[in-house]
Amino acid sequence: MITDPPGSWTLGDRTVNRIGFGAMRLPQNGQAFAVDAVPRDRDQAIAVLRRAVELGVNHIDTAAFYFSRLRSANELINRALAPYPDDLVIATKVGPARDPSGQWLPLARPEQLRGQVEENLRQLGRDHLDLVNLRVSGLDSISEHFGVLAGLREAGLIRHLGISNARPAHLAQAQAVAPVVCVQNAYGLGYRREQDAFLGTCGEQGIAFVPFFSVAGADREAGGVAAPDPVVEVARKYDVTPAQLRIAWTLHRGPHVLAIPGTANPTHLGDNLAAADLQLTADDLVLLDAAPQE
Ligand SMILES: NC(=O)c1ccc[n+]([C@@H]2O[C@H](COP(=O)([O-])OP(=O)(O)OC[C@H]3O[C@@H](n4cnc5c(N)ncnc54)[C@H](OP(=O)(O)O)[C@@H]3O)[C@@H](O)[C@H]2O)c1
Question: What is the pLDDT of residue 1?
């Protein structure tokens, strides 16, 4: 049994702080994947990544398909952080793909996954990937896809595997093939609460649950902060922002729940990491549980 210090979790063989960083917001201003997205200022994105690591972030979520016309999340991470700190876990995901002009392509076939892994290796400038999530999207059975990734893990290209946008049946299929260290699904306060049971299952099995859109909620790629009444009320009580309150609530869902809020704003970054210190009471949690489902 591994005992982690408070505020951290062991992903595979690596201990990470429970608040990490999501890189999807970095390549563009405004909505992710918008065809007319304005590329982000490179220096701003690099400064945010470096500041994140200075402030203790050692878990960054990315993907090769996070890019705008002129910026790629992986290239920004490479430029900002290489040579990488020893304790940094970079998690990427495979399955979806966009062509060079940004149009979505069909989900990768199993035989295309090796190329996607190598694309991430090239862009990040690494010889292995710390953690690769198979983004399941639309597959009933993931056994064949996951089998390919398990082979790449055996070959030393990948250290650890996870799944994303997954259902409990997918977890069982994957575990029949190789160990799974995390499940990355959309979830947050008042958002996708039908995931509660799956989140609990992951905790029982020692698997990290890594929610995305935990700040934005139903506004998803458009971004912003979902702030229904109880969020505003409890945030005011502690003199924190609704975004901080949402992140703190996420951490209160269990020690295995890891936040990966996305931002390109240095002030928001500092606020998000400070949310680790916010202790909510049982009464707060009851009030917040009554937040309307989006
Ligand atoms: N597996 C998947 O399918 C999947 C899908 C989507 C995302 N992800 C990953 O999950 C990460 C998190 O998702 P996300 O970035 O879409 O959503 P999010 O973290 O829920 O919310 C991001 C939005 O909240 C704003 N924000 C963040 N902190 C704030 C603060 N302290 N105050 C005010 N506004 C704040 C950001 O704008 P500012 O830039 O203005 O701060 C942005 O608009 C992504 O970056 C990505 O790495 C995975």
Answer: 41
